[in-house]
Amino acid sequence: MFSFHHVFDHPMARGFPNRFSTQYRCYSVSMLAGPNDRSDVEKGGKIIMPPSALDQLSRLNITYPMLFKLTNKNSDRMTHCGVLEFVADEGICYLPHWMMQNLLLEEGGLVQVESVNLMVATYSKFQPQSPDFLDITNPKAVLENALRNFACLTTGDVIAINYNEKIYELRVMETKPDKAVSIIECDMNVDFDAPLGYKEPERRTQNHDEPTEEEGDASSYADMDTGFRAFTGSGNRLDGKTKGIEPSPAPLTANDIKRGIPNYDFKVGRITFIRNSRPQPRRNVEDDDAMNRFIAFSGQGQSLRKKGRKP
C-alpha cells in the first residue's frame, strides 16, 4: 500500500524553500532612471526591488510587513531594511547611500537579500556622530519623525537623518529585545549617548588667593567711582617747582562705598520717584513743650535811661 507519510518525509520535500533569498546588484538611488526625484529613499531605511521579487514573495507564505536581511558576503557585513517599491530593473536593487556605506558596497556590488521576521522594538539608544546634533531644540521629536521612514533598526548601523537641509548621522548603540528589531507600529523608548567628540565644559574651582565676591564687588565699585573726593587735586608752587606737590589720595575701601538699597516693593509698570531720601530729624518732647509754652511779646525790655535821673 502506498503511503503519503514517506513522500512528505523525503529530504527534497523538507528542504522546499519557504523564504525569499536571492542576490542583486545594488546601486544608489541617484542611479535610478526616471524623471521623478526619489530623494525620499535617502531619508529612510527602505530599498527598491524589481517586480519579480514581488511575484516570488506573493507565492511564499511571507508575513507582513516585509522585512529583509542584506548581507555583503565579501566583507561579512549585514543590516536589515524594508521595501518601498518594486519598480527596479530585473537583477538590480537600489539602496540608500548610508546603507551602502554600512555594508561596504560599491556601485554594482552584489548583495544577498533574504526575508526575515524581526521582533518589535521596545528600546533603542543612539549616539550622534557630531556635536552639531545638540543644536537641535527637540532631538527626540526630530528622530521620531525621521524614523517613520524606517522599517527596522540593527545594532551597530550608522543611520542618516535629514533635518533643516542638513544630514545628521547617528550610530545605533543598542536595541531591545534583540540586536535587530522592527519599529513599525511600536512603542519604543529612545535614549541618547553623548555625541562623538563632545567635551563637557570645565568647571573652574575658586582658589583661596582669588578675591571673594564681596572683595570683588568693592574693587569694582571703587573702579567705577568717579564722584568727588576731597584733596585729590594737584597744586602749583609760586617758584615753579613741582617737588612735594603730587597728590597722594588714600585708596577707597569697601566701607567708604555707599551702596543703594533696592526697592523690594517694586511692581512692573510702576515708577516711584523718591523726593527726599534723607531721613527727617526727630523732634524731642522737650522741644515740643517749649513751642507750646511760647507767648508772643512776653519778654522784658531794657531802657536806655536809668531810673531816678533827670534828663
UniProtKB/TrEMBL annotation:
Pathway: Protein degradation; proteasomal ubiquitin-dependent pathway. Gene3D superfamilies: 3.10.330.10, Ubiquitin fusion degradation protein UFD1, N-terminal domain (2.40.40.50). Keywords: Ubl conjugation pathway. InterPro entries: Ufd1-like (IPR004854), Ufd1-like_Nn (IPR042299), UFD1_N1 (IPR055417), UFD1_N2 (IPR055418). Residues 20-118, 121-195 form the Ubiquitin fusion degradation protein UFD1 N-terminal subdomain domain. Residues 200-221, 233-256 are annotated as: Disordered. GO terms for cellular component: UFD1-NPL4 complex; VCP-NPL4-UFD1 AAA ATPase complex. GO terms for molecular function: polyubiquitin modification-dependent protein binding. GO terms for biological process: cellular response to xenobiotic stimulus; retrograde protein transport, ER to cytosol; ubiquitin-dependent protein catabolic process. Residues 200-210 have a biased composition (Basic and acidic residues). The keyword ATP-binding does not apply. The keyword Endoplasmic reticulum does not apply. Essential component of the ubiquitin-dependent proteolytic pathway which degrades ubiquitin fusion proteins. The ternary complex containing UFD1, VCP and NPLOC4 binds ubiquitinated proteins and is necessary for the export of misfolded proteins from the ER to the cytoplasm, where they are degraded by the proteasome. The NPLOC4-UFD1-VCP complex regulates spindle disassembly at the end of mitosis and is necessary for the formation of a closed nuclear envelope. It may be involved in the development of some ectoderm-derived structures. Belongs to the UFD1 family. This is Ubiquitin recognition factor in ER-associated degradation protein 1.
